[in-house]
TrEMBL record:
Its EC number is 3.1.3.12. It catalyses: alpha,alpha-trehalose 6-phosphate + H2O = alpha,alpha-trehalose + phosphate. Its cofactor is a divalent metal cation. Coiled coil: none annotated. This is Trehalose 6-phosphate phosphatase. The keyword Hydrolase applies. Pathway: Glycan biosynthesis; trehalose biosynthesis. GO terms for molecular function: trehalose-phosphatase activity. The lineage of its organism: Eukaryota, Sar, Stramenopiles, Oomycota, Peronosporomycetes. Belongs to the trehalose phosphatase family. It holds the Pfam family Trehalose_PPase. It comes from Phytophthora fragariaefolia. The keyword Hydrolase applies. InterPro entries: HAD-like_sf, HAD-SF_hydro_IIB, HAD_sf, OTSB-like, Trehalose_PPase. Removes the phosphate from trehalose 6-phosphate to produce free trehalose.
Length: 162
């Protein structure tokens, strides 16, 4: 977790926690006191964290219980979902407008107010990326179960079903 300072006061140097046990639940009181004047930010990965790893990436769907948990989290913390998938896909899969979303491994970010950050450096390499995507698709044509996914600013090769 990261923190965002509340108010307009100048940031202070980080304070050290005296927690010797890495278990946050066992030291929750001390952690809570330490972060009292900060707004916590929670970043969660989609595949394998919010959803189980599945053979077909299109079927990695958010369970109703996990969606409810995200709704509760976003009411208390600034909450973001990060993925290698495209921004459009992750927004469609999660479908909670009040979250921050980072698609294509952070190359394509959008906040709940519609503020967007598109990595211009990545945009200038789209032609090259599309060539790589097409070549990869050609290379795996004969491999049953392999799939190439275009994530706008990145390409994924899925091979779980090979």
């Amino acid at each position: 977790m990261a923190t965002a300072k509340t108010g307009s006061e100048r940031p202070c140097p980080p304070r050290r926690l005296s927690v010797t046990n890495a278990n946050a639940l066992a030291n929750f009181g001390e952690l809570q006191a330490h972060f009292r004047d900060h707004r916590l930010v929670v970043f969660l990965d989609y595949d394998g964290t919010l959803t189980p790893i599945v053979n077909d990436p299109a079927l990695a769907l958010l369970s109703p219980a996990m969606k409810d948990t995200l709704e509760k989290l976003r009411q208390k913390f600034i909450t973001g979902v990060i993925t290698g998938r495209s921004l459009h896909k992750i927004q469609k899969f999660v479908s909670i407008p009040q979250l921050y979303y980072a698609g294509s491994h952070g190359f394509d970010i959008e906040g709940p107010d519609g503020t967007a950050i598109k990595n211009q450096v990545a945009a200038q390499f789209l032609t090259d990326l599309h060539e790589v995507r097409d070549e990869l698709r050609d290379q795996i044509k004969g491999i049953t179960g392999a799939e190439v996914e275009d994530n706008i600013f990145s390409v994924s090769l899925h091979y779980r079903c090979v």
